[in-house]
Amino acid sequence: MELAGVTLPGEAVGGDAHDFLRLTDGRLGVAVSDVSGKGIPAAILMASVQASFRALTETDIEPAALMAALNRRVLEINEPDRFVCYFFAAIDPVAGELTYVNAGIEPPILVGADGTVRDLEEGGIILGVLPGATYDSERVRVRPGDVLLVFSDGMVDARVPEEALTDRHQLVDMVRRSPGASAEHLKQLIMSSAQPPSGGVSDDDVTLVVVRFY
Questions:
Q1: Where is average pLDDT lowest: 131-140, 154-163, 168-177?
Q2: Residue-wise DSSP of 55-76
Q3: How confident is the model at residue 165 (pLDDT cuts 50, 70, 90)?
Q4: In this structure, is the dihedral angle defined by the CA atoms of residues 152, 156, 158 and 164, taken in order, positive or negative?
């Protein structure tokens, strides 16, 4: 299994982040998060959320329970007008499976070696909005040659559609046209293709994580 990730800030200080870490049970954790808003407050909230996430992963908590606990933490520290989108996956490369929960992140794409495409949508509401929110996880089989793309909405969304850096179909197409490419190569390929049409810096933060399974 190979991992590659990048977070590029937009025009203003923002709240995107990604994280890789080894979990206590030996699985690999992959997280992508996006705080609403811009500026220093968003960056401070993201730092607090990431610290809470790291602390929670030091226990044997499962992804769905972790997300519920993280939601409670965000409600404790958050301002009323902010929320956090979060995706977390615990990957077991030996068993060939991942368990994930999605709290409002643009649905990640699992591109199978056989060309199939699956959107990872299971989870629940964004963090920091609803006290007592519960979350559902889903277990997914992964096979050699599969590629997982996790990204923030800055990659595919724009106020004007023509200004979007790319779209979901283009992301899948780039993976399909690059069989056997490493995670790092796919990351560079996607990011080099996802440039603002108007040039310069994107309005929004952009985060991309690529996981290549062998």
A1: 154-163
A2: HHHTTT--HHHHHHHHHHHHHH
A3: low
A4: positive
For the record, the structure tokens of 160 come out as 């004007």
Q: Show the domains of the chain with their CATH numbers.
A: 2-212 (3.60.40.10)
Residues 6+ apart with CB under 8 A from 198: 163
Q: Is the dihedral of CA 126, 154, 182, 184 positive or negative?
A: negative
Residue 34: pLDDT over 90: yes
Element (H, E) at 190: helix 183-193
**Tokens linked to 106:** 């643009």
Q: Does the pLDDT at position 24 exceed 80?
A: yes
Residues 128/68, Cβ–Cβ less than 8 Å: no
The DSSP symbol for 113 reads: T
Mean pLDDT of 190-214: 81
Closest CA to 57 of 38, 41, 74, 70: 70
**Is 19 in a helix, a strand, or coil?**
strand
Question: What does the pLDDT read at residue 12?
Answer: 63
Which helix (H) or strand (E) element contains residue 84?
strand 84-92
